[in-house]
Amino acid sequence: MSDRDDLLHVINDKAVIRGDFVLSSGQRADWYIDLRRVLLSGASAALAGRVMLAVTADLRYDAVGGLTLGADPVAAAMMHAAFVQGMNLDAFVVRKAGKAHGLQRRIEGPDVTGRRVLAVEDTSTTGASVLTAVDALREAGAEVAGVAVLVDFVGGAKLQPARGPRWPRAGGSFAPPTKSATCAWADGRRAPARRRPPVPCEPLVAGARRRRRCR
Fold it and tell me: What is this structure's pTM?
């Protein structure tokens, strides 16, 4: 069994919760994925880090992070997994707003100015959170190599609109190169109980059509 298969098993076993939920996008669903149960577990965080490194191996970046709080454990898992593999990968945290005290930084951690970085998120429904991080990173002078999410709600994540002319054109809108480790079947409406849980998602490449193909 591959690392990705193992991760899917862990997510389905530990993170998928049935109930009545309002997502951060304001949409409703009758199941929810709480990836903190996976990413903050000593038994599975390293596994998630390895999968995300493998999915994004072709993007060339030397720092990883995103909007707090969802991105924080993803970035930490990738940083530690990279160290085990003999690579030096820094992590950073993008605040929702800059601090009014101390160093008054919007992006915490090693300086990202002039560096090629990866923006990450644990789950994505509309793409709003990770694109907020992309904007902050570009304002700080970083080159954003791409975006990666651990679970993408299929039919929900729309990584748009335009965030600058350097993004390749994809599916009728400008978007950064996007990677997804797994897909979750949700369409923004109340998902029926029979709708399938997360499944492997074919990684996207820069300039490719953004429709995710899952099996």
Answer: 0.76
